[in-house]
Amino acid sequence: MKMLLKIVLILVVLILAVGVFLPDTWEVEVKSTMTADVAAVHAQLSDLRNWNSWSAWNDRKDPTLKMEYTGTGVGSVETWTAEELGTGRMEITASDPATGVEYFIEFEGMAERLNGKFTYATQGDTVEVTWTGWGDTGGMPWDNVMMKVFLPMVRADFEESLVGLKAKVEGPADSADG
What we know:
Elements: H1 2-21, E1 25-34, H2 38-46, E2 66-70, E3 77-82, E4 86-96, E5 100-107, E6 114-123, E7 126-136, H3 141-170
Antiparallel strand pairs: 1-7, 2-3, 3-4, 4-5, 5-6, 6-7
Helix pairs in contact: 1-3
């Protein structure tokens, strides 16, 4: 038993030592090109009430999710509680139909905010949507290590969400009757 305790202690010390050398900041960025009008994209992103229909973080992932909304546009807020997704708050801080939407997220029990933005680049009848999320771990070695673990999951959720957004704004495919 003492040997097992020593091994666990050594592993914890090693993980924390590695965490000291990891960056305190993180960033995730994913892109998707959509055949849609930028106004349709912006309508989905600028109204938090729409997010549940395309986002990976929704009541299909966690049926216990309960959301409440206040306001519209800049300053609008979504709060939520859920068993799996936790408790939190998101607020839109900037919204421009031509360039994109910015927001922050606060999770209960976390000191640092998570920041995010969607930017648009239009070309012809397509819109390239870039979703960037970033934050700061507060310099805590354990949090630095945990962000390295969580970043691939965050990236996967961003990608899944953009697939959902793309389906939403492009609508059903036209069927050819040949």
